[in-house]
Amino acid sequence: MRTGPRSHTEAGAEGNHYLRRSATLTARLPISRRLKVILAFALVYVFWGSTYLGIRVAVDRVPPILLAGVRFTISGSLLLAFCALSGRRVRVGRRQLAELAVVGFILLGVSNVVLAWSELYVPTGLAALIVSIVPIWFLLIERWLLPVSDRAPRSAIGGVALGAIGVAVLFWPKVVAAERFGWMQAVACLALLGSSFCWAFGSVLSRRWKVAADPLVASGWQMLFAGLIDGAAGLALGQHHRAVWNTTGVAAIAYLVVFGSWVGYSAYIWLLRHVPTSKVATYAYVNPVVAVFLGWMVLGESIDRYILAGAAIIVPAVALVTRAEDPGDGATPVSEAG
Fold first, then answer.
1. Distance between CA atoms of 25 and 20, rounded to whole angstroms?
2. Is there a domain that residue 86 lies in?
3. Number of domains in the chain
4. Is the residue at 317 inside a domain?
5. Could you list the residue range(s) of the whole structural domain that residue 283 is in?
6. 227-255 b/e with 16+ CB inside 10 Å = b?
7. pTM flag (> 0.85)
8. Does some domain include residue 135?
9. Is 38 exposed, middle or buried (0-12, 13-18, 19+ CB in 10 A)?
10. How do residues 208-257 score in pLDDT, each as one tens digit?
């Protein structure tokens, strides 16, 4: 074994070895991040598309406000417990708690409840298509309601107009048949527009406020606040008297807790912190396709020409908006704390 001083050649060779190793590790970092982004998108795309079916099955047995209360109280409590056990910092400041409570209530306590209620009257595929205009709401909110820039690109404005036409196509048969089948389908469709607006508004607030907390911790607090508020409201309204806690309903809620709340929602919040909002909103392309397919396959929902025409108009409209609003890879994402 050699113990004497190394030559300049040996030292230089070793130094070059470490430099090459460091460069290799640095080159791998972007790949690792891209893989995380791809995985997070896949989780949001697939599982959130399937939650429309889960919500439809669950809301048939548990009224919507109580359903949200049970689902998100369980989801938030267990997610925060997991974060604490895994060494994440669960405690946050009062102001941060207030911001998480506001965002959680808008995203989950309002938007999700309205979606669940609407699915009592409209097919899951139609609900998913109407909700898919979220990127258009993003544009309107970030350009005019909470402006970050002066003018919207012409293609984005065209996308908004095209999206409005697509929504009108989806609404038309509900309005025409309102006298025969009642107005609740039309009202539910309008409510879905409000649901998608609340989701976009809450998402923009989540990105703007940049709460300095681990994404899973933030998700847990948002779910818990939404669940407690909705749970209290559901009990106050007596919805627990109308709930049917059978095996199918409990299984649907469990699916929503695991795949809709833990997996899908946490991936969505993580994406909001690392990817431009307009790119995150592309989940609206895939979710309706998954929802329409599952609604047809499992629930026997019909796919009429209005749904096909509306989808053929709305998807390109959403694409126009997201492409126009995409700031490119140079955009600075919201940094993750911890």
1. 9
2. yes
3. 1
4. yes
5. 37-325
6. bbbbbebbeeeebeeeeeeeeebeebbeb
7. no
8. yes
9. exposed
10. 887 888 888 988 999 999 999 999 999 999 999 999 999 999 999 999 99
